[in-house]
Amino acid sequence: MNSGKNEVRLRPSVLLSPASLHVMPSSWIAQLHQSAMQLDDKQVFSLIAAIPPEHAAIAIALTDLVNRVRFDKIVNLSQPVVQT
Amino acid sequence: MNSEQSTATKGNILIVDDALDSLNLLYATLSQRGYEVRKAINGSMALMGVQSAPPDLILLDIRMPDMDGYEVCQLLKASPESCNIPIIFLSALDEPLDKVRAFSLGAADYITKPFQTEEVLARIENQLALQAAKAEIRRFNAALEQRVQQRTEELQREIGERQRAEESLRQQAEQTQLVAAIAQRIRQSLDLDTILKTTVTEIRQLLQVDRVLIYRFEPDWSGVVVVESVSKSDHSIIGKPLIDHCFQQGFVEQYRQGRIQNLEDIYTGGLTQCHIDLLADLGVRANLVVPIVQEENLWGLLLANQCVQPRRWTLLEVDLMKQLSTQLAIAIQQSELYHQVQQFNAKLERQVQERTLQLQRSLDFEAALKRITDKVRDSLDESQILQAAVQELAHVLQIECCNAGLYNAELTSSTIAFEYTTSLPSYQGLVVQMGNYPEIYRQLLQHQSIQLCGAQPQLIGETDYQFAMLACPVADDQGVIGDLWLFKPKEAMFEDLEVRLVQQVANQCAIALRQARLYATAQTQVETLESLHQLKDDFLSTVSHELRSPVTNMKMAIQMLEVALEQIKAASFAEIGADAPSNKTVQRATHYLQILGSECDREISLVTDLLDLQRLEAGAQDSITDWIDLNLWLPTSIDAFEERTQARQQQLQVEIPALLPQICSDLDAINRILTELLHNACKYTPPGETITVTAQVDPSSRFSQPSSSFNQSKGSGTVMRLSTLLLSVTNSGVEISADELPRIFEKFYRVATADRWQQGGTGLGLALVKKLVEHLGGTIEARSIQRQTTFRIALPIAC
Fold it and tell me: How would you list the strands of the sheet with B36-40, edge to edge?
């Protein structure tokens, strides 16, 4: 949707690690994992919307992954949290 | 399933394509059309998404790195969760599309890129409609399945119910059988005790309880345990006194109406303390009580007790007890009826026995009467008659004493002449003066018997004992001869039957006594006559002897005279001729002398006959047996009469077999018999008539005893056979009347009209013949019919 203009600016997804998501509550992480597994982009977007503004970078990174249909990466990011 | 969610939108579609542009385009297009759309850029992501949330439809690109569309399709179809999701392949026009492979892998459809939006939508809608239809079918199937399931469950429930019903029926049937079996065992006996015992034993075994009792009510509604069955002897309460202060009258009425006490535990049953104490004292913890009711009457109670533990009585058990109590009531009633019938039978039996006894007694008496009658009639001895009577009477009637009194001719006193006694002292010979007991003897003399009860037998002077006495006159139409007295212990009585027997015996005694007395009188007369006869015979014998000597002398003198006269005749006839007067005198004298001679001969033969007869009658005659040749002897004897019959113009016929055997007999006697018969025949046969003599020997003996006279000849060595000599002499022209015929063998008897030849005779001939025949052991009979008189003689002989 809003693909083209942010693509260049934001490539920080590499920065994302599972630990990056720990700023969010574990239930949120679990919901994110679940939604990613279901390839549910709307749900993932609504979860991203819940990320406080101070962690906008995380939101941007996650939004980028969704836009590139990389649910597999989101699943991987949220997975270790679920496991622990 | 999230099929419901998908109906909110038009459908949930997953698009798998590694080309992001193509992906986003389809995504945008389908989202606009109202589809819920998700995206995946490779196979593994697609699989993950399908696994997490299955879509309604998958649009799958064939050419992808790592895992191509075919492989993804294969994997999806392999999983049961995802195998039903329709897959539409997407393929670029320039790519070779292996449609066969696609369909064989389970693809629903395929779309060629670049695609027409409308075509894509149409295909998607088509697939979704198909899917929806499939889903509908599945739902329908599921609903059907569910209904089938429900129905099956219902059926199973129903089957279960049926089985339960069957089970309960079976239990009922079993219970019925059980009750029937027990009822049968109960009813096997008619003995009440056995019935009750069987019942309690059976019920205790059936219910597996500690104790089963039967309690019977008395008329005052107290009661007693009549029978029990216990698992341990500790539980026994039979014979224990049951004092029930609190068992109110009211219960009786309730039980009569079928009340059942079903008590699981006496302590929790809401009983009064008094009742609890009573039951606890009897060792009852759980109590099941059913009444035994017989036609509205409360006979008793049937109780099942659990002694230690409480026990919940099942409906089945209560029902069983109820049914068994009913059976028991029936059995008790039957038993009681049976007892009544038996008592009735016993009573009947007793009556029959009594009647039989009476009949037997009556028969015995009749037999006794017959026996006594025979005995007293057999005898002509007065003492035997009465002795037999008193003895038999005492014996038959089993009495203490019986005696017979004989009255004197004046009927003033009675002498106890005969007696039979077992306990009383003897009074035989005692003379009772009738005047001392006028009432008794007046009645006896009037031919009436008397019974005296408890009277003292003063008649016989005995005062220590008391007796029942019966006095019965021995009397006939000519008056009372005596009496019979019978004694029984005083408390006894003479029954009518006995009195009648005694009276009949008395009557028989009277007849017998009268006969005996008549016989005695007759006997005396006979003896007198016999002695007179003897005197006469002796006289005759003597006289005959005395007569014979002078007659013999006279005969001799006559013979001498004849000789002398012959000499005179010879001398004087020669001298003076026969016609001389003196010679005529001589001729007359000769004639007279002839008369004198023949009369003298007659006298001699008369005397001889008399003497012979006398000897035969006295039995003094000896017989001498000898061999006789009948072929010689008979003609010789008969020839002697030839001349005489010719002179009287009588025919003499002899009919004898050509050859007669030699016989052994008394020649003199036989000769005399034949001679006398022929003599007799000659005498009575008119001229022109016939005299026939026959003789034959019958080789069979007609006499049971051989004559004793044969014994002498036994030693001769010849085998002797006993035979019979038959002789007969018949003359015609004369008939002796039937009146006279029996008398012709009497001495000196003469047939009135006979003796046409005036031969006289001695009148002893036939008497002599009869005596001689009898002496030889033979028989003679005379018959006279149709002017023919026959004498037939049969003599035992040996030959």
Answer: B36-40, B12-16, B57-61, B87-92, B109-113
Judge contact between B501 and B369, C-beta under 8 A.
Answer: yes
pLDDT digits (tens, 9 = 90+) for B371-421: 888 888 777 888 888 888 888 888 888 888 888 888 888 888 888 888 888
Residue B711 lies in a domain: yes
Q: Could you tell me the CATH number of the domain that includes residue B59?
A: 3.40.50.2300
ipTM value, please give it: 0.83
Contact state of A40 with B48 under an 8 Å Cβ cutoff = no
Closest chain B CA to residue A4 = B21
Question: Does A69 contact B45 at a Cβ distance shorter than 8 Å?
Answer: yes
Distance of alpha carbon B196 from alpha carbon B189, whole angstroms? 10
Cβ burial, residue B419 (10 Å; 0-12/13-18/19+): buried
CB contact under 8 A, A69 and B20: yes
Containing B339, the helix (H) or strand (E) segment is helix B315-378
Q: What are phi and psi of B729, to 5 degrees?
A: -125, 120
Q: What are residue B39's phi and psi, to 5 degrees?
A: -130, 145
- Burial (CB < 10 A; 0-12, 13-18, 19+), residue B363, is exposed
Q: What domain range includes position B783? A: 623-798
Is A8's pLDDT higher than 50?
no
pLDDT in tens, B461-477: 555 567 788 889 988 88
A18 touches B: beta carbon within 8 Å: no
* Residue B245 shares a structural domain with residue B388: no
Contact at CB, A75 and B48, closer than 8 angstroms: yes
* Domain shared by B139 and B35, yes or no: yes
CATH number for B631: 3.30.565.10
Query: Cβ of B49 and A38 within 8 Å?
Result: yes
Q: For chain B, say whether A39 makes contact (Cβ under 8 Å).
A: yes
Cβ within 8 Å, pair A38-B45: no
Asked whether the predicted pLDDT for residue B592 surpasses 70, the reply is yes
Phi and psi torsions of B50, nearest 5°: -60, -40
Q: Does residue B589 lie in a domain region?
A: no
Task: Give the closest-approach CA distance of A84 to chain B in angstroms.
Answer: 21
Q: What CA–CA distance (Å, rounded) separates A55 from A22? A: 11
Cβ-Cβ contacts under 8 Å, A41 against chain B: 38-39
> How high is the pLDDT of residue B766?
87
Give the domain CATH number at B458: 3.30.450.40
Tally of domains within chain B: 4
- Closest residue on chain B to A36 (Cα): B49
Q: Strand pairing partners for B111?
A: B90
Cβ contact B41:B17 at 8 Å: yes
**Does residue B383 share a domain with residue B428?**
yes
Q: How confident is the model over B729-742, as a mean pLDDT? A: 86
Q: How many CB atoms lie within 10 A of CB B135?
A: 18
Contact B664, B798 (CB under 8 A): yes
Query: Angle of helix B496-576 relative to helix B382-397, nearest 10 degrees?
Result: 160
Q: How far apart are CA B467 and CA A43, in angstroms?
A: 146
Inter-chain Cβ pairs, chain A and chain B, closer than 8 A: 42
User: B334 with B414, same domain?
Assistant: no
- Is any Cβ of chain B less than 8 angstroms from the Cβ of A20? no
Residues B778 and B631 in one domain: yes
Chain B: closest CA distance from residue A38 (Å): 4
Q: Are residues B504 and B379 in the same domain?
A: yes
Contacts of A37 in chain B (CB under 8 A): 48-49, 51-53
Q: Map tokens 């991987």 to a residue.
A: A76
pLDDT tens column, B28-71: 999 998 899 999 999 999 999 999 999 989 999 988 888 989 99
Q: How close A23 comes to chain B (CA, Å)?
A: 26
CA distance B20 to A66: 12
